[in-house]
Amino acid sequence: MDYLIAFLIGGAICAVIQILMDNTKLMPGRIMVILVCLGALLGSLGLYEPFEKWAGAGATVPLCGFGNSLFQGIKEAIDKDGFLGIFNGGLTATSAGIAGALIFSYIASLIFSPKMKG
């Protein structure tokens, strides 16, 4: 049942974003920023953690989950290191995901030889 809930919630988030892309003039980069900021905002209000526990990977994989991870990392680093935690907490909390994205993107570019759109 956990897999089904994760699939449905993740799909619903993606569907809402697709509708937003199709019906507004917002560029994909701005939509990505909105998602990250929304995740951080919901995390700061204490709303994202219960949603994440219920939805599992359906809530952690989309960009709003990344925003929540950034917020949680900064929050923990501030508690531990004080003001300097603002600068290193988010990167420390999300470094594995960022590194994975960079490594796998590089490997994919070697295999598939990307081209610029014309």
How would you describe the overall organization of this protein?
This protein is an all-alpha fold. It has one domain. It is 83% helix and 0% strand. The protein has 6 helices and no strands. The protein has helices at residues 2-23, 28-44, 48-55, 57-60, 63-81, 85-112. Helix 2 packs across helix 5 (63-81) and helix 5 packs antiparallel against helix 6. The model has no long low-confidence stretch (mean pLDDT 91). The chain crosses the membrane at residues 6-24, 31-48, 83-112. Keywords: Membrane, Transmembrane, Transmembrane helix. It comes from Anaerocolumna xylanovorans DSM 12503.
Map the helices and strands.
Blueprint lengths: L1 H22 L4 H17 L3 H8 L1 H4 L2 H19 L3 H28 L6
Helix pairs in contact: 2-5, 5-6
Parts with pLDDT < 50 across at least 5 consecutive residues: none
Order of helices and strands: HHHHHH
Distance between the termini: 44 Å
Major β-sheet profile: none
Question: Which overall shape is indicated by the principal axes computed on the Cα atoms?
Answer: globular
Beta-sheet strand percentage? Answer: under 5%
Number of strands: 0
- The structural class is mainly alpha
The radius of gyration over CA amounts to 16 Å
